[in-house]
Write a structure and sequence with these properties.
Layout (H helix, E strand, L loop, with lengths): L4 H25 L2 H57 L4 H82 L4 H14 L3 E5 L2 E2 L8 H9 L6 E2 L6 E3 L5
InterPro entries: CT398_CC_hairpin (IPR056003), Oxidative_Scav/Glycosyltrans (IPR052376), Zf-RING_7 (IPR003743)
Keywords: Coiled coil
Protein name: C4-type zinc ribbon domain-containing protein
Length: 243
């Protein structure tokens, strides 16, 4: 393939633009915020699970407290009824003895229930404190996630802006090349990563490998307008007069 040496030299400009575009693509895939967000999301899920667990425990204790309070109220109502019967003086001796025994039993039962209720309320208070702590931890995890997300979005916006500028620049630079040369360049870049590089003394500027004697001789003998490529990586070698 033939191409004016001046046109070939412009391939280096195109390669520079493509290198910058490749950096944008690489940067987009490897933003540190991406890993940070993944870890933050895991932490948020863990904190949400912890809060759900402690809230479930608090709910169970709350229902148990209500059940205990209801049972105590029922015992108290029974005690009140029995006292009224005793005070009414309308019961016989046997019933009187039974009522007194029942009142004593109800008193012990109420005392035991009240002790249990006190223990339940202390447990619920401790669990409520755990729930509050879990909410604070979840809020912190969510705030960290939001912060990382904002920084990622800002970085992506900058990369998109850079990409748009470089893409527009590439369109202008690529417009100076004949179609066959541009197609060759793009094909090499797609498969090898670098489409064109400067020939530096004895080495390819793309793969940095020194050319052997036969390759150097062929390169030296090639006409200035001949499009030559590196035998190792396939990149188009751009020869500069002082190199």
């Amino acid at each position: 393939m033939k191409a004016d040496p001046a046109v070939q030299r412009k391939l280096l400009d195109l390669a520079q633009v493509d290198t910058e575009l490749a950096r944008v693509t690489h940067r987009r895939r490897t933003l540190p915020e991406l890993a940070e967000i993944a870890e933050a999301e895991k932490l948020v899920r863990a904190k949400q699970d912890a809060l759900t667990l402690v809230e479930t425990t608090a709910g169970d204790l709350g229902r148990e407290v209500k059940r205990q309070e209801t049972e105590i109220d029922q015992v108290r109502a029974r005690e009140e009824r029995d006292r009224k019967l005793l005070q009414g003086g309308t019961v016989g001796a046997k019933q009187l003895t039974d009522l007194e025994h029942e009142l004593a039993t109800l008193g012990r039962r109420r005392s035991a229930l009240e002790d249990d209720l006190l223990e339940l309320m202390e447990r619920r208070e401790a669990v409520d404190a755990d729930a509050q702590h879990a909410r604070v931890q979840l809020d912190k995890a969510q705030e960290a996630l939001s912060d990382a997300t904002r920084r990622r979005d800002s970085a992506l916006a900058d990369l998109e802006s850079t990409e748009a500028k470089r893409t527009a620049e590439r369109k202008i630079v690529a417009g100076v090349f004949p179609e066959p040369l541009l197609a060759l360049y793009d094909r090499v870049r797609e498969h090898k990563g670098v489409g064109a590089a400067v020939f530096q003394t004895r080495s390819c500027g793309a793969c940095r490998i020194e050319l052997d004697r036969s390759a150097l001789s062929a390169l030296k003998d090639a006409p200035a307008d001949e499009v030559v490529r590196c035998e190792e990586c396939g990149a188009i070698l751009v020869r500069l007069g002082d190199r």
